[in-house]
Amino acid sequence: MLKKSQAPAFTPAIIPGTIPSPETFTDGLPLPKIIVFDLDYTLWPFWVDTHVTPPLKAKDNNTKSVDRIGESFTFYPDVPSILLSAKSTTPHPITLATASRTSAPDLATTLLKQLHLPPSVAFPALSSSSSSKAPASKRAYDLFDYIQIFPGDKKTHFQRIQKASGVAYGEMLFFDDERRNRNVESLGVVFWEVPSGVSRAEVDRGVWEWRRRKGREAKEA
Predict the structure, then answer these.
(1) Neighbours of 156 (CB within 10 A)
(2) CA atoms of 41 and 196, how far apart (whole Å)
(3) Residue 37: left (phi > 0), alpha (psi -120 to 50), or beta?
(4) Backbone torsion region of residue 146, taken as left when φ is above 0, otherwise alpha when ψ lies between -120 and 50, otherwise beta
(5) Is-catalytic flag, 38?
(6) I need a surface site. Which of 21, 47, 48, 79 has the fewest CB within 10 A?
(7) pTM assigned to the model
(8) Which of these is catalytic: 38, 78, 176, 177?
(9) Annotated catalytic residue 40
(10) How far apart are CA 179 and CA 167, in angstroms?
């Protein structure tokens, strides 16, 4: 695809709270127990093993990282709000995981650790009320409960997530930009393709597809 052959353009991260959380996170209907995200062209608009020239250095209060030749890298605009709001759902936060087949797992991990998500009054569950100090930003890395980053068939990534979490495949929703990774549906995972990356609208569409397939489109006791 043309978009992936071009050098990435820097898009500033949006401070959580300036974009609404996905509507499905607050509508009171069933949610998957685990939401899994690919990384390249899903959470961020580049291939980390192709477009990034290490080393990386965090800049602008960790809202972006800059590589050796001065290229800037960060998430798609809606991603910070989506990740933070997932951890503020009630009565329980949504478990988050990554499943990436990049050939540069260490570089992808570094980027997740360097990119921070600023706290917001929109997501008070993530801020400490016991201190008068301004709440600290959170590393994106720390919001993920399970991180699987290595080359290979993504069914292996999901088998490891399932073994570590004990959660049934049918309770997982996977966002990925590559159609070939739909093969995880053979395990029972619901796959939602995001050819232009993750956004609030795409998350809502994916959750509704999970509900439809699982017959869980109504409120449950």
Answers:
(1) 15
(2) 7
(3) beta
(4) beta
(5) yes
(6) 47
(7) 0.87
(8) 38
(9) yes
(10) 24
In one letter, which amino acid is 63? T
Structure token pair of residue 46: 């580049």
27, 40, 153, 204: the active-site residue:
40
Copy the structure tokens of residue 216: 């869980």
In angstroms, rounded to a whole number, what is the distance separating the alpha carbons of residues 60 and 62? 5
Cα–Cα distance measured from residue 64 to residue 57, given in angstroms and rounded to the nearest whole number:
9
CA 86 – CA 82 distance, rounded (Å):
6
